[in-house]
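Batch manifest, entry 17 of 40.
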Amino acid sequence: MGNIKISGPIHYELLYIVSNKFTLDEAKDINKKIKEEISNKYKGEITYEEEWGKKEMSYKIQQFRYGYYFLLEFDLDRQKLEKLEKYLRLSDEVIRYMLVKKKKQTADEINSEQARIKAIFNQEKSEKIEKKQASQRPVLKEDKEEKNNLEEKKELQKTISESNQEEKNKKEDKKKIDLDELDKKLDKILDADNLI
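Output type: structure tokens
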């Protein structure tokens, strides 16, 4: 049995980023131009589209930190895909794109996937907000009391340390006095005439 070739259009998903050197309206015009390229020039059928808006990228791309994100799903003949990719690569407006073959989804599947993605996004966003709020929250009464307790402990340790140092100094002074007295007694003994 030979290889079976699938004929007809294949379903694809295209996610691309337009640099933020353009305004939002200009980015929408670029999106419209790309859609026309797919449907008119390459005879593809756009089945779904989303505009994600301006977002910060994980890292700079071509010196840009932000970009406008667009998502398109479309059906296209495999032979025309290479020409579309060449068009996207050579485009000055598109700074990154990802084009993948995708299983065609029903409206319910799309809504379910969007809800899942939105939940993940909202969870990440709320975690970032919580971290930011935690770092910026005012000092609570309990925090002040804890801080005061720490300061009292430090003061107590300092006092104990100073007391220990004073005792050590007294002992050293006593040794010096004892040695001085010993020297005096020794001198008296040596000065005495009746040693022998």
